[in-house]
Amino acid sequence: MAIEKFDAVDLIHTKRDKGALGTEQINWLVDAYTRGYVGDEQMAAMTMAIFLNGMGRQEIRDLTLAMIASGERMNFDSLSKPTTDKHSTGGVGDKITLPLAPLVASFGVAVPQLSGRGLGHTGGTLDKLESIPGWRADLSNEEFFAQLEDVGSVICAAGAGLAPADKKLYALRDITGTVEAIPLIASSIMSKKIAEGTAALVLDVKFGSGAFLKDPARSRELAETMVALGKDAGVATVALLTNMNVPLGLTIGNANEVRESVEVLAGGGPADVVELTVALAREMLALAGQPDADVEAALKDGRAMDTWRAMISAQGGDPDAALPVAREQHVVTADRDGILVQQEALPFGVAAWRLGAGRARKQDPVQHAAGIDLHAKPGDTVTKGQPLFTLSADEPERFERALESLEGAYEVAEPGTPFEVQPLIADRIS
Ligand code: URA
Fold first, then answer.
1. Of 6, 26, 72, 263, which has fewest CB within 10 angstroms of its CB?
2. What is the dihedral of CA 281, 345, 205, 89, to 10 degrees?
C-alpha cells in the first residue's frame, strides 16, 4: 500500500484551530477525497471548519486549482473565434442565459454555456430549454465544437469529466450545512468555469431574497473572490452585483421563461430582463474585444433571434413548435386599489417549485408548463380585482401549497404610498 503524504486528521486540526493549509496539503486532500481515501465524514468536518474559520486567498486559489486538476480541462484553441462565457449564482425567474448566449454569439464570438439542472427554488437552464419539443441537452464533444464554430452559442449539459472533485464535494456540502461558505462557493464555481476553458467570463452575482447569499456585503465578497480567482488563472473576469429581491421578468417556470426569452430576442420583453441581458452582453463582448458592439440593435433587427433559432435547431429542437401549456390555472387578484409595493423573490420561487416547475430530488422530472406569470411588478398601480399573478400546474392539488408559500410575499399598499424601485445592477467588480 502506498504511503499517504498527509493525515486528514492533522489537516482538520489545522483548519479547526484557524491555521492555514499549504498547497501540498490541499492538493493531497482534494486528490485523496476524490479517490475515496479521505472519507465523507472527514471531509464534512473539514468543510465545517472552513465554513467557520474561512480560508486565505492562497488557500482558495490552491483549492480551486486542485479541483480543476481532479478532471479534464477543455481547450478552445482550435476555434476560429474568441470564447466568452457567463455564470449566474442563480435566482428566481433568471432566464438571462437564454437570450444572452445567442445575442453575444451573433457578434461572431463563441459562447460555450455548460449548464445544469435546477434543484430547489432556483430553476435550471437545461430544464427551461427542455420544454422546447425535440431539444436535447447532451452533446458529444464533436457536436459541441462543431456548433460553437458554426452557430457560435451552445447551451448544453456539463460532462462528468469537469472538476469531479467539486461534484463530490458539492453533494457533501449540500447535506452538511456547508454550502454558504464563500471560499467553498468561489472555488466550486470557478473550478468548473476555468476547467471549461473559456478565455473570458462575466459573473452575475446576485444578492437579496431569492439569491444564494442574501446579504449584499457577502455577495460582494464572493464576487471579489471569484474575479481574483479568474484573473489568477488567466481568465479575463468581470462581475456584476445584481438585485434578486424581486423575481426577474414576468415569468417563473420553464416553458413560460422560454416564451419570455423569445420576446426579448424579438426586441420586446420586460424591461429588467432586457436591461440585464444587454448589460451582461456588453461586458462579455468587451472582454472578447468588441467594446463598442451595438447590442440593442442585434435584438431589434433579428440577428440575435436568427442565432437563437440556429442554436435550438442544431440541438434537435423546433424553434417554431408550440410550448406546453398547463392544464390548470389559478389567478390571484388585487384586493384593493393601490400600489404593488412587495413581490418577494424567494416565496415566489418556492411557489413555482411547489407547482412542479422545480424538483425536490435530483432524479425527479420537472413539469415544463408549471410556473407563475406575473401581471404586475413592484411600483405598478393596480385596481381592485386586477390579476396580480397566475399560477399554472397540471394538478390543481398543487395550488394550495403554492399559495401557502405566497402568504405575506406580496402587498398592495394605499394609493399614493411612496415607492422607490431599487436599481437592478448595484455594482461592477473588475
Ligand atoms: N454553485 C456551484 O456550482 N457551487 C456552489 O458552491 C454554489 C453554487
1. 72
2. -90
User: Ligand 1 within 6 A of 170 CB?
Assistant: yes
Q: Using the mean position of ligand 1's atoms as its centre, give its distance from the Cα of residue 400 in Å.
A: 31
pLDDT tops 70 at residue 9: yes
Find out whether the beta carbon of 144 lies less than 6 Å from any atom of ligand 1. no
**CA dist., res. 204 & res. 191, Å (int):** 16
Q: Which three cell numbers stand for residue 306?
A: 436568427
Which among 185, 190, 225 is the best mutation to test ligand 1's pocket, defined by most ligand atoms within 8 Å of the CB? 185
> What is the percentage of the chain residues whose pLDDT exceeds 70?
99
Q: Per-residue pLDDT tens for 24-66?
A: 999 999 999 999 999 999 999 999 999 999 999 999 999 999 9
**Residue 362 CB contacts under 8 Å (≥ 6 apart), including other chains:** 117, 119
Active site residues: 87, 166, 173, 188, 192
Is residue 295 a contact partner of residue 141, using CB atoms and an 8 Å limit?
no
State the average pLDDT for the chain: 96
Q: CB within 8 A of 51, min separation 6: which ones?
A: 177, 178, 180, 181, 184
**If you compute the radius of gyration of the chain from its CA atoms, what whole number of angstroms results?**
22
Q: What is the dihedral of CA 164, 60, 87, 345, to 10 degrees?
A: 110
| Adjacent-strand bridge partners of 411 | 342
Stated pTM of the model:
0.96
Distances in Å between the Cα of 428 and the Cα atoms of 279, 297, 316, 382 are 10, 23, 37, 34
- 386, containing H or E segment: none
- What are the CB-based long-range contacts (under 8 Å, 24+) for 266-275? 266/302, 266/305, 267/299, 267/300, 267/302, 269/99, 270/377, 272/248, 272/377, 272/424, 273/95, 273/96, 273/99, 273/248, 273/249, 274/299, 275/424, 275/425
Q: Is 85 helix (H, G, I), strand (E, B) or coil?
A: strand
Determine the Cα–Cα distance for residues 95 and 4; give it in Å rounded to an integer.
46
**For ligand 1, is residue 188 a contact (CB within 6 Å)?**
yes
Whether ligand 1 lies within 6 angstroms of the CB of 116 is answered as: no
Q: Which protein residue's CA is at the shortest distance from atom 3 of ligand 1?
A: 189
Amino acid found at 194: I
Ligand 1 contact via 211 beta carbon (within 6 Å): no
Cα(188) to ligand 1 centroid in Å equals: 5
From the number of C-beta atoms within 10 Å of its C-beta (0-12, 13-18, 19+), residue 188 rates as: buried
Counting ligand 1 atoms within 8 A of each CB, the residue from 189, 206, 226 with the most, and so the one to mutate, is 189
